[in-house]
């Protein structure tokens, strides 16, 4: 078994494939528009300042240990706050939380920074990061590894606490718009 693991760790890309050109950023964006994704709010704090952003780049990694990965653009203020605090909360939005998604995506004029947290009801779990009431799920996490991925950081997180509700419909993002599942 250890030999198999070492072979995976020593893996190198196929040199024939490595020389092939990548698709353009526009072609990639076009293709990704067709990949429906759950809408989340990634929240954190840096000292007493709460920060957050709307994100769809969240994925389960393992159940044991419970780990998720979150990709955050390096340019947003919350990215630096996550690096400083070492913690974040992933709030999976329900279909009736589109307004909160727009607020944290910067789509509501005049609402920035701490004023974003005036929308919705907020509480804290273990880490002290903001957790949205009524979300389908809250994942309270500590960051265990950070990967530099071009324009983003990939935060590998361990889940310390969860809170959620049974049932409910998720808010999705598809083809440049927020969507709900049809009943």
Layout: helices, strands, pairs:
Blueprint: H1 2-9, H2 15-18, H3 25-32, E1 37-38, E2 40-46, E3 49-55, E4 58-62, E5 67-73, H4 77-85, E6 87-92, H5 98-104, E7 122-124, E8 130-132, E9 137-149, E10 152-164, E11 171-174, E12 177-180
Antiparallel strand pairs: 1-11, 2-3, 2-6, 4-5, 5-10, 6-9, 7-8, 9-10, 11-12
What does this structure look like?
By secondary structure, the protein is α+β, with helices and mostly antiparallel strands. Helices cover 20% and strands 40% of the residues. The protein is built from 5 helices and 12 strands. It has helices spanning 2-9, 15-18, 25-32, 77-85, 98-104, and strands spanning 37-38, 40-46, 49-55, 58-62, 67-73, 87-92, 122-124, 130-132, 137-149, 152-164, 171-174, 177-180. A 7-stranded antiparallel β-sheet has the order 3-2-6-9-10-5-4, with helices on both faces. It has a 3-stranded antiparallel β-sheet with strand order 1-11-12, with no helix packed on it. The longest helix is centred in the middle third of the chain and has 9 residues, at 77-85. It starts with a helix and ends with a strand.
């Amino acid at each position: 078994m250890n030999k198999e693991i070492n072979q995976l760790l020593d893996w190198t890309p196929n040199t024939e494939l490595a020389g092939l050109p990548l698709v353009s950023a526009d072609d990639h964006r076009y293709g990704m528009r067709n990949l429906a994704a759950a809408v989340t709010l990634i929240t954190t704090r840096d000292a007493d300042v709460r920060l957050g952003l709307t994100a769809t780049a969240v994925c389960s990694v393992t159940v044991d240990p419970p780990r998720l990965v979150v990709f955050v653009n390096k340019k947003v203020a919350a990215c630096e706050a996550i690096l400083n605090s070492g913690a974040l909360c992933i709030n999976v939005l329900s279909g009736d939380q589109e307004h909160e998604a727009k607020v944290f995506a910067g789509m509501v004029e005049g609402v920035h920074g701490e004023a974003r947290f005036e929308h919705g009801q907020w509480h804290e779990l273990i880490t002290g990061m903001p957790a949205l009431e009524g979300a389908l799920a809250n994942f309270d996490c500590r960051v265990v590894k950070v990967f530099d991925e071009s324009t983003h950081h990939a935060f590998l997180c361990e889940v310390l606490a969860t809170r959620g509700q049974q049932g409910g419909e998720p808010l999705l993002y598809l083809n440049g718009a927020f969507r709900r599942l049809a009943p």
